[in-house]
## 1
Amino acid sequence: MEVPKIFGYIGLATSVLLLARIIKTVYIYIRPSSLSRYGKKGDEAWAFVTGASDGIGQGFAQELCARGFNVFLHGRNVEKLRKIQESLRKEYPTRQTRIIIYDASQIDASIDNIASQVGETTRLTVLINNVGGMGVMMPNTYTNLQDFTFEEMQTIISVNATFSAHITRVLLPLLFKNEPGLIINISSTTKFGIPWLVPYVATKAFAIGFGDSLSAEMRADKHDVEVMGVIVGSVESASNPAKPSLFTPTSRAMASAVLDRVGCGELSVWGHWAHRLQGIAVDVFPQKTFQDIATTQVRKLKLEQEQKKLK
């Protein structure tokens, strides 16, 4: 075979593969959501949202009620949750909500009691593992690994990883009982690696690995439970009071985008299409290059935080 023809075939194959990838990506963001599969009309299905007291968690509570689900609102601040519960009652009078109080930073065997709070007769079909953040470190969010205290590092890991793993373990039997079921694990673009947030970043990578393995286990054991990891970029919230924009959606818009991805067939997916556009950098550049770009931005935030602390 002539050399020019070989390169021609390689080019053609590459073009076909690239086109197929583009079509697949576009389809993920235009296809209808399969969320209704887990809460058919008149089914009285329930969803459990961790970290529902603000931010994306509150957005999930709003969107799930709007889409016909009753919602368990989990958090540690009862007053915040009651305000959200009252707001949901006014906006969605036909939906039910219940409050579950548990401090994700203080985990012990009592977490097993949450299953009884949910109840065997409640048709739980959806679990949103959303709780997380670096609030424990405020106002010193950006910290070198060696400068974390034991308590600080343990709290970050507990809130962002340990709690999600345990609450999934606790609620899985109920999801099995009410199959089909859905588990969504919220991760972050930070999972690709940035400095001065090492324990937090590690938990975001854990969320994807945990979900991938759990998905394989569900299929191996023939359970009809979909497990989807979601990569989230910048979102306007109480902890990130940025002005909403194309690449910084509101918390509710982010939650809506995530629910629209249900059933897309991917183990992990960028929740919002605008974040996926930004994620092209991860596909194109070496990971170290992406990290260097992110480091420049984080360094600015770290410096701003240090200057505020000195004032």
Note: The chain has ten helices and seven strands.
## 2
Amino acid sequence: MSLKVQVPNAGHYIKMEAGSISRDKVTFSGGVFMPGEVYAVVASKAVKLDFAASSGAELAKGIAYAYVDASAADAEGVATTRLTEVNLNGLTLPDGYTAPNLASAVAELAKSHIVVRGV
């Protein structure tokens, strides 16, 4: 018997967006990204958000719109990068994040006019 896991629907975290201008094609690197996963950008690639880093990986820059598997190699995917209102309950942040980490991520996303509701 095989186990099947339901991946969240693409864009499930979005409350409102400004049409296609809110999304971009992005190169993801270094793992599997789930819909709603907040990511950082290092060397022009979306990487796993890591609040303990000091390389830029600690700065939230966007949200994976749909499932992307970049575990074996870099992969193209779609991301929410601007002008969007999102639901906090639909976002995925690194395990063990703290209230200050959340506040930092929300503030960084706000710089791109991504507004997080439910904080």
Note: The mean pLDDT is 95.
## 3
Amino acid sequence: MASENKKNNCSGCLKGLVDNMFLKCSFCSDCYDLECAGISEQCFVGEAWDAWKCVACKSKQPKTGNQDTPARAGAGGVTVRRGASRMSPSGLDALTPEPLTLEAIFFEVLRSREETREQHRDVCAQIAGLREMMRELSGRVERCEGRVTALDKRISSLESRTDSIVKDSAGRLGAFEQRLEAVETRRAGPETDGGSVAELERTVSVLRRELNDRDQEALLADLEIGQLPEAKGESVLHSVCVLASRLGVPLEERDVVFAERVGAPPAEAGGRARRVVVRLARRHLRDELLRAARVRRGVAEGGGRVFVNERLTRSNRQLYHQVREECRKLQWRYSWTRRGRVFVRRSDGAQVFQISSPDDFLRVFGPPAI
């Protein structure tokens, strides 16, 4: 191998030489880079090149009829070079690379095998990662299928229960109507005496109360919202969800069965917003909204106040209105509703009375003052 380089450029291509990456001819002392010398980097590191001769010096050796000599003199003294040649700036032909040795080919084969093994390991790792991802994805799909199946079963169960409840309620309502019609028919008969009329009236009153209680039970998941601002083209469902969030109760649209306004349009009602009737999918959501509304004592909305109450039947709503008016006259402090029933109390610590009929009204407040 060559020692220190006395020249800065390659004698073949005249390019700058890299430190220790060149060969020095043992005859002419010219230096050549590895590309011009036709030597690979692996062979250059693996062998000793102290006795290396350049192609020009090899061609000066006595000829022995070797046809593989890189340069041969032709007719007229013209030198014919085999293979690809390079021209130096001075017009001299570049040196033809020397053929690779068996050891260089061996090192090239080893390097190629190592690169192939690395690529094979990378491909195997990627395939293993893909298999793991597929197993995880398959597990997630199976879990999702199980949840969907459970939801289908729950929905089917709820539908069957709802159908049975509706059928039972329809049957009872039909029986009540038949009984009421029978009572009214008997009441209108010509042979009815005074005692029978009074008894029939009591029976009709009892039946009406039972029908009213049934109707009130059907409204246990309903709310009535008053003074909620109304706008043209509004989404009542969205307004209800926004109001619930202001009360601190998270409410999604899927939790609401329906939400609509009832009553005369604002133009016909003097510009006053119509009340909103809401039915929730679960009763405990209605109870949470009522508790939050009682704590807030009316929620401010656009400069006004919004009131949230439980929904009452027409009969109970009229009775509650009469009770409130009477409490205002007699200066009773408390009147409220709970699960469709009306309650009153004169003051703190006083007895609580339940009013469910005009008879209870007379019993608690007495006959009206003349």
Note: The chain has nine helices and twelve strands.
